[in-house]
Amino acid sequence: MSQLGPDAVRSALISENDLLADLAQTSDPETPIPTCPGWTLANLTTHVGRGHRWAAAMVADHATDYLDTKAVPDGRPPRDAEGADRWLRDSAQLVLDNVDGTGAGVPIWTFTGPRPAQWWIRRRLHEATVHRADVLLALGHEVTMDHDIAADGLSEWLTLWQTPGRGRSDALLAEGHTVHLHGTDGGEWSIRPAGAMIDWDDNNSDAAVEVSGTALDLLLMMTRRIGTDDPRLTTSGDHAVLSDLLAKTPF
């Protein structure tokens, strides 16, 4: 499965973050977000904007260790609506600016081990895409997303769970348990156990359970924004294998 190129990822980070800001600008900040229990829209936008600034700060500092989110510069949005809107929009651009200033290939701390600074652009993009979906679902709106962005988001999410260790002692998938995701609008994701973690590729292979749907609906399912019984999905095989994987891979 090919992924978005660096230029496309940069552009998408800004456009997706702006779409989230547009929603926040026209909605009640106290709107509950059911897919993020206990959060309001204001909590969600603060989480996304602070997360962007957290990544940007680590990139700027050539971080080799975790940065406490409480230490993030300008980690809280202004109290006024106009200032909060500008703060959220600027936060995504700050990621790009700091990657450019530091150098895209410079190793930076990540929760998957040291990665090139530009790794954070893709991670922050898909943090924004899924949380934009949270807001749309909360508002009762249809979730829409460019196919290539959704497909890349699914690939990026699975790749995060390839990292050895990540503090796990129990396997995400038992030996012999495999999951195949079929994108009805293009794309294949075959997931198999790899020690405590998973591995995946874009082969169309037999699996214990197969799920078909658009790349967006598969992304929403894997990040637990819609259920496996959603009518937009078609599932065959051992549902328990899929349910177990989802339970162990929270967004």
How would you describe what is shown here?
This protein folds into 2 domains: 6-144, Up-down Bundle (Four Helix Bundle (Hemerythrin (Met), subunit A)), CATH 1.20.120; 153-248, SCP2 sterol-binding domain (Nonspecific Lipid-transfer Protein, Chain A). The strands form 2 sheets. A 5-stranded mixed β-sheet has the order 5-4-3-6-7. Strands 1-2 form a two-stranded antiparallel sheet. With 251 residues, the chain is α+β, with helices and mostly antiparallel strands. The longest helix has 22 residues, at 81-102. Strand 1 (107-108) and strand 2 (115-116) form a beta hairpin. The chain is globular and about 50 Å long. The protein is 45% helix and 12% strand. The chain has 7 helices and 7 strands, in the order H-H-H-E-E-H-H-E-E-E-E-H-E-H. The protein starts with 5 loop residues before the first helix and ends with a helix. The mean pLDDT is 95.
Question: Main attributes?
Answer:
251 residues, alpha+beta, Four Helix Bundle (Hemerythrin (Met), subunit A), Nonspecific Lipid-transfer Protein, Chain A, 2 domains, five-stranded mixed beta sheet, two-stranded antiparallel sheet, 7 helices, globular
Q: Please, how many helices? A: 7
The secondary-structure element order is HHHEEHHEEEEHEH
Largest sheet descriptor: 5 strands, mixed
- Give the tally of structural domains: 2
- Portion of residues within helices: 40-55%
CATH superfamily of the largest domain: dinb family like domain
SS strand fraction: 5-15%
Number of strands: 7
Low-confidence stretches: none
